Amino acid sequence: MSTLTDSSVDILSNPSSDHYAGDLLEVSMGPQHPSTHGVFRMNVTLDGEQVVKLKPVFGYLHRNHEKIAETESYLGCMPYTDRLDYICSITNNWAYALAVEKLAGIQVPERAEYLRVITGELTRLQNHAGLIGFLMQDMGASGTPLMYAFREREKILDLFEALTGARMMCNYMRFGGCRVDLPSGWMQQAQKVVDEFPRFLDEFERLLMTNEILMARTQGVGVVTTGQAINSGMSGPMARASGVNYDLRKVDKYGIYDRFSFRVPLGDKGDVYDRYMLRVLEMRESIEILKQAMRDLPSGPIMDPNTKIRGFRPKAGEAYGRIEAPKGELGFYLISDGTPNPYRFRVRPPSLINLTLLEQMCIGQNVADIVIILGSVDIVLGEVDR
Amino acid sequence: MNLEEIKSQIEANVPGCQLEIIPNGSPSGQHSLLVDTDHAFAVASFLRESASPRFDYCSNATGIDWPLKEVSTKVKTKKIVDGVEKEVDEVVKTQTGGYLEVVYHLFSVEQREGPLVLRMRTQDRAEGVHLPSLTPIWRSAEFQEREIFDLYGVLFDGHPDLRRLLMWEEFQDFPMRRDYVDPDDYEYEPTAHDDVLKRAQAHQSTEGGL
Q1: Which residue in A54, A211, A245, A314 is deepest, having the highest Cβ count within 10 Å?
Q2: B115 lies in which domain range?
């Protein structure tokens, strides 16, 4: 990835803050700020243009999801998980379904596992495409790259709509399988989307990869080292951009991910550019997985016949299930006391925990860099605040 | 490496610590390790620093509330009734819970191990709610411990910045506790507007009304 670092696009170092020595300025960025991707607020202390201190303020979208879940049945919790990371509802369903399956020891039929991989990887594609578009928007590339990305995302959302009836709140999975089978003609349409997607990536990369402004704005900005990334609990593309070789699809091999051959891209600098590049590369790997999964999709049932999803009462016990969601490690920790409602329902939100190092990443940078650093973390406030 | 081995390794390296394996009844088989609060920090440092097991990644940290609960179980006992030995059902009442629990899920990125489930319990649910913070060991616990403090009221000693995370600072109660009742005046906040209204009323009364 570093091969593209070109000294000619290095921006000059910032003028010394001595010029502005004196009063610090406190700025409250957000909660209603277009670049904070929702209702997120940062109390930023500035010395001139430079960030001296940054304290994130959470809770504007807090609805105590975990408490609501304690009063719901196991099945009733499923639609609520859509609202966590509302860009990627299918992977949220998957993580929750996986945790319940671990809790009760449910086997998932083969075809359902394939459907999960197909819809899950499509979710990753549309999340990463959308994120890169937003990142460009944050950088001031007003509109065009975002619209390119949204044009592709739209095609995937159409597929979701045809399959689940909803574009974003898909509520697709159940513990023990999936809710509905593919409608006729869906596979051909999906194949077309998957076949055409690399063309979009080529176009996007040609447009942006060596773009001088993109490189100047992102290279060397918001650096996180490998050790810091592991210790601060970063996961997903954020951690891998810092060189942490930890992809749960390879580590846990949940579902049927051991059947597919794909590579795990890693960054070596840990800056915003690496995070951007990593997502582009991950989309290419997702397409590889999709091609293999669509080729091998078997026929058969999509629900485990022994699982009664209504009036479901798992034995007393607990389980922690996690998946590689587009934003990182999404985990659900469930405790059952033998009643129809979970005794404890905990969501491990990757967006929130990836923000742990936000202050460290921003200190010493300019105000405008906060926006792109935050953009590269890829947060969704539905999940951060729960 | 199974939990028994990890337990014996910790016991060999952290003298005086009291560990207990809490069995898990579900098919997931994720049994957990209960650590006493006095040695929890030392145990956690050992798990993070030792060569093997090396749990360098603390993925999840969360709280659980276990209010005091009376559990009655039927036990068959032999009793002599009218000179004849008989089996009689007897109800035995035991008390469980009465504490808050904090759970950490640890993984090893280097060795691809995990999860190791580490638990700590407070003495009770009102006064003795202090637990050692593990944020100095795993930075990832920073926001999660703040959240546990916010929603359960566990005080983490040694946390660098223990504030409420999701609720607002003036909020008093701990919403995730099982016995929490929502206030009926959520929206009420004293504002400068109240003073203005009072002044306006006072002003109008001197004028004799409109």
Answers
A1: A314
A2: 3-66+99-181
pLDDT at A306: 84
Tens digit of each residue's pLDDT (9 = 90 or more) over A59-83: 888 988 999 999 989 999 999 999 9
Q: Say whether residue B115 is in contact with chain A using an 8 A CB cutoff.
A: yes
Of A228, A317, A352, the CB nearest to B26: A317
- For chain A, the domain total comes to 1
Q: Is B64 on the interface with A (CB under 8 A)?
A: yes
Residue A51 lies in a domain: no
Domain that holds residue A313: 61-384
Task: Please report whether residue B141 resides in a domain.
Answer: yes
Helix A110-139 to helix A186-208 angle (10° resolution) is: 30
A1 residue type, one letter: M
Q: Count Cβ atoms below 10 Å from residue A26 Cβ, excluding itself.
A: 11
How distant, in Å, are the alpha carbons of B197, B199, B200 from that of B209?
A: 15, 14, 11
Q: How far apart are CA A170 and CA B196, in angstroms?
A: 49
Q: Is A36 part of a structural domain of the chain?
A: no
Q: How many domains does chain B have?
A: 1
Cβ A335–B56 below 8 Å, yes or no? Answer: no
CATH code assigned at A233 = 1.10.645.10
**SS3 of B105, please?**
strand
Which chain A residue shows the shortest CA-CA distance from B115? A320
Instruction: Name the pLDDT band for B188 (thresholds 50, 70, 90).
Output: low
Instruction: Please name the member of B60, B139, B167 whose beta carbon is closest to the beta carbon of A232.
Output: B139
pTM of this structure: 0.85
Instruction: Read off the CATH number of the domain in which B12 is found.
Output: 3.30.460.80
**Considering CB atoms only, which of A251, A318, A353 is closest to B140?**
A353
User: What are the tens digits of pLDDT across the range A39-62?
Assistant: 888 888 888 888 888 889 888 889
SS3 state of residue A178: strand
